[in-house]
Give the backbone structure.
Amino acid sequence: MNYILFDTDAWNQCKPLTFTKPVSEIRCGILTIREKWEYFVQNTCSHLTQGYLQKKYPCVSSKKNICIAGSVLPNNAVVKLICNLELNQALSYKGELLAVCISEQDVLRFTPEAYLSQAREVTIPVERIVYPWDIFTHNAKQIESDFELLTYDKTSQKISETNTCIAPENIFIEEGARVECAVLNAQNGKIYIGKDAEIMEGALIRGPFALCEHASVKMGAKIYEGTTIGPYSKVGGEVQNSVIFGYSNKGHDGYLGNSVLGEWCNLGADTNNSNLKNDYSEVRVWNYPTERFAKTGLQFCGLIMGDHSKSAINTMFNTGTVVGVSANVFGAGFPRNFTPSFSWGGPQGLEVYSLNKAVEVAKRVYARRSLDFSDVEIDILAHIFKETEKYRRF
């Protein structure tokens, strides 16, 4: 069987995080949604996504294909229902297509709406990422379930005696990881340390917590439950219930709470975000489909930052701030709660951050990781630059 993950309306709702990727490339827990599905179905999954992303995330079809909503977080019950589908059978959940089994010819003209009328409604609960804040609200539980997937029938590296550990049976350290002189409290949740990752001396960590491969926690960092630090990221200071997708840095002191950072982001020293309003009221967050601030239903919600964006030292982000793709935020005071993509500035005003300059910086950043910022990547940024132009009326 061939498996394809298709974008749902969550792709629009989760902007700016999904401007640069399909919704199934969102990281929640230890793994991305795609990686979770690949573990469950024991097969690779490709993407049906937006036209400008399809070259980077190609679709691979076969004679018989199961197309699955890319926003769905898999579990045994959901996977069993979907994998038992026969050709032309479909499932829906709360009025949206969950999965359908179709031929190779039908993949070429696939739209979710075409199969809703024939879909059988699923009655078991299905967890999905629909909005950006769903990523950190689901994260603690997803760390626990991903932990079971990744550590099944495996043995952890021995924990160094220089560390102080509570419930060490809930701690798993992959090959090549280094952890010395840290305090690891896994009493209330699993702690996963990925391959070749490092936790430096004096770090204080509470589970559920995930440190992905080649990522690092700096000396003296304080990491609270529900936090994921994605691959090749560096984190210091204080972090709580937040997800960093990968290749991003928060290397210095400062607070990050109830937040999501995309890839290739950098928070300057002493960058802080608020995650609670002074009047304790519900947080509203900029929503791209409606082009207005939407209710989250949450009292705690911090920073949502798209790929390639950065903040200068001492930057202060207010509760429920959204920063787009390739933005540079700096200056005294609180910037706006919505900073458009390709913006340069802060509370004193914004100007357009040119596409050429953004590409030039991205090439340098990639080169530091021995990676090539290809023409495909440039075309994606160019599309986003044009699509978001209407927000940059400075």
